Amino acid sequence: MSDTIERIELDQNSGGASCGAPKTACCTAPASKWTWKTFPGKDYIFSTWAVVLGGPLLVLLLDQVQFVPFVTFAIQAFLGTLPYIAFAVALIAWLKASGAEAYVGRAFEGRETQAIFLAALFGGLAPFCSCEVIPFIAGLLAVGAPLSAIMAFWLSSPLIDPPTLLITAGALGWPFAIGKAVSAVALGLFGGFLVSVLLKTGAFANPVKIGSSASGCGCGASPQTGRPVWKFWKETERTDKFYVELKTNALFLVKWLALAYVLEAALVTYVPANLIAGVVGGEGVGSIAISALVGMPAYLNSYVAPPLLAGLMDQGMSAGAAMAFMIAGAVSSIPAMAAVWSLVKPQVFATYLGLGFVGAVLSGLIFQLVI
């Protein structure tokens, strides 16, 4: 009987494994086999910061000559966006701490059509590239603005702004510059109204990724007045909320935009612009579609693209293919996609890419027919 009891205790102490030996000499459970899933550092190796820091280090090890230009480009691009990040982070934290986020989102209720038009027009005038627009998209998502209006702004904003309009006109002529401006607003309207229709079918019910800077809620309005508490610093709870949101959103946006600009630096350094654009020469519908496909991951910003495309058009590239390439590249470069992916769920991200591609092709075809 005592042997039975001892064996039962032995089984319990050893996780149910019995070797039939006395308790003092019993074998222990075998050590768990090492697998990649159990490796404690795997989350850090594949983290965003690992890429941000590892990219420049890799350049330093393999191509020391390009290290300083690589890092300088990434830092300068990031510093250029820093004022937008600071403004967006402070605004999000203030709206959430004061309880005003719901009121901002409610301002669009019943005015979706007007909001889409205003977003598309404002996006065409705002001097933001596809990366700089990310902090503002995060803010709009955080306060509950309709996805249709956000998509309109998202699509039109990177395409044209006053300086780009003048540069494009100087390199490619006013017809091309005006055509691009019209395409920017038209693409924003097209995307906004299409998303509006999809929303009515039940699509994109929860577009924001959990844990992103665009998710979460604030303290709510004042229970006494039902209005936002603009002077939130008079209440400890709201002040604490402000600092928490400030820190969380700052870390989130800095992390993803740092990744975006490291990727951008890699593209600019190691993928010659003329090599990318040279692939899309030729005329016809096929060249327009290929131009849009190649232009989406390529990095040719609105200041570099016009002179380069002007040279390619002199060598036989069609105006429609040039328009498709320029629009696709501005809407959805790899740096922008990396940042966008962090904010919204995959179905919204895929819709954004699809709209960018279709819009670029349609713009190229229409421009080719008009010109």
TrEMBL record:
The transmembrane segments are 44-62, 74-95, 115-131, 176-199, 250-270, 276-300, 321-343, 349-370
Tell whether Transmembrane is among the UniProt keywords: yes
Q: Which InterPro entries match?
A: DUF318 (IPR005524), UPF0718_permease (IPR053166)
Signal sequence annotation:
none
Compartments in which it is found: Cell membrane
What are its GO cellular component terms?
plasma membrane
- State the family named in the UniProt similarity comment for this chain: Belongs to the UPF0718 family.
Q: This chain belongs to which protein, by name? A: Putative permease
What species is given as this protein's source? Roseibium album
Q: What is the lineage of its organism?
A: Bacteria, Pseudomonadati, Pseudomonadota, Alphaproteobacteria, Hyphomicrobiales
